Automatic annotation (TrEMBL):
PROSITE patterns: TSAA_1, TSAA_2
Regions crossing the membrane: none
Entries under Pfam families matching the protein: TrmO_C, TrmO_N
Name the UniProt record assigns to this protein: tRNA (N6-threonylcarbamoyladenosine(37)-N6)-methyltransferase TrmO
Keyword list, A-Z: Methyltransferase, S-adenosyl-L-methionine, Transferase
GO molecular function, one term: methyltransferase activity
Family: Belongs to the tRNA methyltransferase O family.
Source organism of this protein record: Uruburuella suis
Biological process annotations from GO: methylation
Domain of life: Bacteria
CDD domains (alphabetical): UPF0066
Classification via InterPro entries: TrmO-like_N (IPR023370), TrmO_C (IPR041369), UPF0066_cons_site (IPR023368), YaeB-like (IPR040372), YaeB-like_sf (IPR036413), YaeB_N_sf (IPR036414)
Residues covered by the TsaA-like domain: 5-144
Length: 225
């Protein structure tokens, strides 16, 4: 029996492009998104959800739908050199391009549409959501479980700002930019100190360089409309 998934919500995210999006949920606490439910889902559909701290977001990796999939992928955590089976990774290049993120539920607004505000997001702007479920710790928390090649959080880069580059930024935007770059968004195989990387986030175009374990933000400019 075939069943077609339909989107129940759309993500409004500060990440406008794939480059720079956190590779896992929770790694960039300042990354707040708004998950806006489709018009047919009213306040009744989220009744009781406000009593949970975290939610599972099931979504579609819509930014890579045209890139296909492979049974073997190169996880960034392994330096982009070692291949692992796609089902042993969180790669977006999957047969059905389905993703799963555990996000902190900050608040719910029930107005003309229902909106869930979540932090620690790793979602691209416009991401279609296909389901939402509450996180239940006693069922789903297994801190003693083996974690394969992802035993701990990745090491963070030290982030420095050239004088004046953060002028006019709100505290949250500054944190969002710094935390996103600290995750080292470069492809795992790339290490070119002189290269200038460009990341679009929160309406700004950020230019930065990375050498060893340090990143330097050299320019922050409003994105052209």
């Amino acid at each position: 029996m075939q069943h077609t998934l339909t989107s129940i919500a759309t993500v409004h995210s500060p990440y406008q492009q794939k480059f720079g999006v956190a590779r896992q949920p929770g790694l960039v606490p300042a990354a707040e998104v708004c998950i806006e439910l489709a018009a047919e889902f009213n306040a009744d559909s989220v009744r009781g959800l406000e009593s949970f701290d975290y939610v599972w977001i099931h979504f579609i990796f819509h930014g890579v739908l045209d890139e296909g999939w492979s049974p073997l992928v190169r996880p960034p955590r392994l330096g982009g050199k070692q291949k692992m089976g796609v089902f042993a990774t969180r790669s977006p290049h999957r047969p059905n391009h389905l993703g799963l993120s555990l996000l902190k539920l900050e608040r719910i607004e029930c107005g003309k549409t229902v909106k869930l505000y979540c932090s620690g997001a790793d979602l691209l702007d416009g991401t279609p959501v296909v389901d939402i479920k509450p996180y239940i710790p006693f069922v789903e928390a297994r801190p003693e479980a083996a974690a394969g090649f992802a035993l701990s959080a990745p090491d963070l880069l030290q982030v420095a700002w050239l004088p004046g580059t953060d002028t006019g930024l709100s505290a949250n935007t500054r944190e969002l930019i710094a935390q996103s770059i600290a995750q080292d968004p470069r492809p795992a195989y790339q290490n070119i100190p002189e290269r200038v990387y460009v990341m679009s986030v929160a309406g700004y175009e950020i230019k930065f360089q990375i050498e060893e374990k340090a990143a330097t933000i050299i320019a922050v400019e409003p994105q052209a409309v």
